[in-house]
Amino acid sequence: MILDQLVQASQQRVQKVPVRERVKRIQQARKMTTPVLSFEAMLAQPGLQLIGEVKRASPSKGLIAAEFDYLQIAQDYVAAGIDAISVLTEPRYFKGQLSYLQAIAQTVSVPTLRKDFIVAASQIASARIAGASAVLLIVAILTPVQLQAFITLAHELNLSALVEVHTTAEIKQAVAAGARIIGINNRNLKDFSVNFATSRQLRQAVPAECYVIAESGIQTSTQVQTLAAADFDAILVGETLMRAPDKQQAVRQLRAGGAWMTQIKICGLMQPADVVMVNQALPDAIGMVFAPGRRRRITMATARQLSQQLDPRIRRVGVFTTNQLSEILALVQQHIIQVVQLHATVDDPRIASLMAAHVPVIQAMTPANATQCQADYLLLDNARPGSGQVLDWNQLQSQRPVRPFILAGGLTPTNIVTAINKVCPAMVDVASGVETAGNKDREKINLMVQRAHQTGVSTPLLTEIRRN
């Protein structure tokens, strides 16, 4: 039986490491204070999340990727708006390495999952040391005592535990052991056969308080649509994405079947009262303005205070114009902001410097020069940003950029639905449209977020930026 061979190989790998070294790894992991990207916060986002897998081979399919540039694969996933990345680290049958996970975790800005056949506590510790956000625990290969102990250890190390099941009995065992995330595997690990119906059949057996992920055998947007309708929190897709020549396009095609909503950024937060309002409304991102001369400009000290009070599920964007690169980097390095929004010239050298430092960059441009965008993300605004002037949506409708974009300029709760339906932005950006007499308005913010999230279907954007 394939599963027995996989477990035996994993046990042999563990036993090759001296007991003293295994204990040392656990001790090292317990002492770590470096924060990790939250896997559970990713699952808490509205809609169906997409976890892309990086793997070179499998026991049932053999070699999947002869050319295996795992970092490029991970970066392609992130560029397409993937929500998390699963990395196979099993070396014998899947041709994986823990070093792949470590390199990917250091490079991308989405949560990472160590996918392996974990049979020892030291493997969980090694995942934490490598920078993972979560580990996979398979009910079928662990005793109830082991499962409970491993879940507890993972949580102690600030890791999430994705507990994989294949039957109703295993769901009960997982829940009894304290699982908060259940992965329903459509693949029977005894013979590696796949039945897509498994996840749908078992979904109702998972308690409402648990997040639930569908794994294996997901190939089409129609299947994704079925899983979204069945109220899954996420899907994990491996071979379909790994075999795709254009991985970004493959991600977008799968997303077309999910319940993807237009995202929204509330810009110009200035005071703690603003944070209280957005924490209640839960937009996808907020903006804090550091640009000289802008009415909503705040200091680093104020931004730090607001950032600390903000719900961690909301991404933090810093808005800049002529600011020095050192000032921008300081805000990122101190975890005050996660994304940089630049209103500058097309060829601004700061864009390349920030991207080289793996800082996500939004480049604000007018529709006329949108094709020259050099950054990770494109924001379309007027030549006078912050003016509240509405863009020509009819022109955008006929000359829509080929890449996902953020729409700004004169958006209000009254016109937001029309704007989304006309130009299908991935995200909308609003400041004055949710203000009354120059101050943020709770009712307008709530209405704006509600209408954005309920309108249209769009390619998700910025979902990978979840630094705590």
Short description:
The chain is of the alpha/beta class and 468 residues long.
Explain how this protein is built.
This protein has helices spanning 2-15, 19-31, 39-43, 70-79, 98-107, 121-130, 144-156, 168-176, 197-202, 221-229, 239-242, 247-255, 272-281, 300-309, 325-333, 349-356, 393-398, 416-423, 442-454; strands at residues 49-54, 57-58, 62-63, 84-88, 112-115, 134-138, 160-165, 181-185, 211-215, 234-237, 263-267, 285-289, 315-320, 339-342, 361-365, 377-380, 405-407, 427-430, 435-436, 439-440. By secondary structure, it is α/β, with parallel strands linked by helices. The strands form 4 sheets. Strands 1-4-5-6-7-8-9-10 form an 8-stranded parallel beta barrel, surrounded by 6 helices. Strands 11-12-13-14-15-16-17-18 form an 8-stranded parallel beta barrel. Helix 15 (325-333) links the parallel strand 13 (315-320) and strand 14. The protein is globular, with a radius of gyration of 23 Å. The chain starts with a helix and ends in a 14-residue tail after the last helix. Mean pLDDT is 89; it is low at 463-468.
Topology diagram in text:
Layout: H1 2-15, H2 19-31, H3 39-43, E1 49-54, E2 57-58, E3 62-63, H4 70-79, E4 84-88, H5 98-107, E5 112-115, H6 121-130, E6 134-138, H7 144-156, E7 160-165, H8 168-176, E8 181-185, H9 197-202, E9 211-215, H10 221-229, E10 234-237, H11 239-242, H12 247-255, E11 263-267, H13 272-281, E12 285-289, H14 300-309, E13 315-320, H15 325-333, E14 339-342, H16 349-356, E15 361-365, E16 377-380, H17 393-398, E17 405-407, H18 416-423, E18 427-430, E19 435-436, E20 439-440, H19 442-454
Parallel strand pairs: 1-4, 1-10, 4-5, 5-6, 6-7, 7-8, 8-9, 9-10, 11-12, 11-18, 12-13, 13-14, 14-15, 15-16, 16-17, 17-18
Antiparallel strand pairs: 2-3, 19-20
Helix pairs in contact: 2-6, 4-5, 5-6, 13-19
